[in-house]
Specification:
Distance between the termini: 49 Å
CATH topology: Alpha-D-Glucose-1,6-Bisphosphate, Chain A, domain 4
Largest sheet: 10 strands, mixed
Low-confidence stretches: none
CATH superfamily: START domain
Number of strands: 10
Order of helices and strands: EEEHEEEEEEEH
Oligomer: single chain
CATH architecture: 2-Layer Sandwich
Number of helices: 2
Mean pLDDT: 92
Structural class: alpha+beta
Strand content: over 45%
CATH class: Alpha Beta
Number of domains: 1
Length: about 180
């Protein structure tokens, strides 16, 4: 059964449900003052966290080399009043460039011994988390994020909309920051 539906579409961002526990996020980033390809790296991921302290309680991007990093983020406890656990993500990220597409493929790291976490925090049950940036021209890129959660996870419908609103806030701030760069 095809469940594809747009959950949120606003300010150039589209958050869509593709199937059960499968979501996509789509938007464009543009700035005539910079070469966009040069900013698509692990520092862009760190910038997302830094621009959103109201969303991410803690974060780190540990660059292993030019094409690999481990990334950690602890989300603020948005759904505490609903009895849902606080979530964190810890992934090994691999960056690749093929033609005009730069992608970041993420694999969950389940070992949390080195992480400073609240005892009750639970890992985000991600099956896949992939981001790709298609270079349209020197000053414009198309950004896509594909997220698949564990099939055993039940995501309440109210949570889908709230996730969309949070993502809108996160990527709107990134878009505004990038569009204001003037070098």
């Amino acid at each position: 059964m095809n469940e594809q539906k747009i959950i949120l579409q606003k300010d150039g961002l589209t958050f869509k449900k593709e199937a059960r526990n499968h979501y996509t996020l789509h938007h464009f980033l543009e700035n005539e003052n910079i070469i966009m390809e040069k900013i698509i790296d692990f520092s862009l991921i760190k910038l997302v966290y830094d621009l959103n302290p109201d969303v991410y309680m803690k974060s780190s991007v540990n660059k292993l080399n030019e094409n690999q990093a481990t990334i950690f983020c602890l989300l603020n406890h948005f759904f505490e009043d609903f009895g849902l656990p606080q979530r964190y993500s810890h992934v090994h990220c691999v960056k690749k460039k093929e033609g005009n597409v730069i992608s970041f493929k993420n694999q969950t790291i389940y070992d949390k011994t080195s992480l400073d976490l609240p005892e009750e925090a639970e890992i985000m049950p991600l099956r896949e988390l992939d981001a790709s940036f298609t270079i349209i021209n020197d000053h414009k890129i198309e950004a896509n994020c594909d997220v698949k959660f564990d099939p055993n996870l039940t995501i309440p419908i109210f949570a889908e909309k709230m996730i969309g609103v949070i993502l809108l806030k996160v990527f709107k701030r990134l878009k505004q920051f990038i569009e204001k760069i003037n070098i």
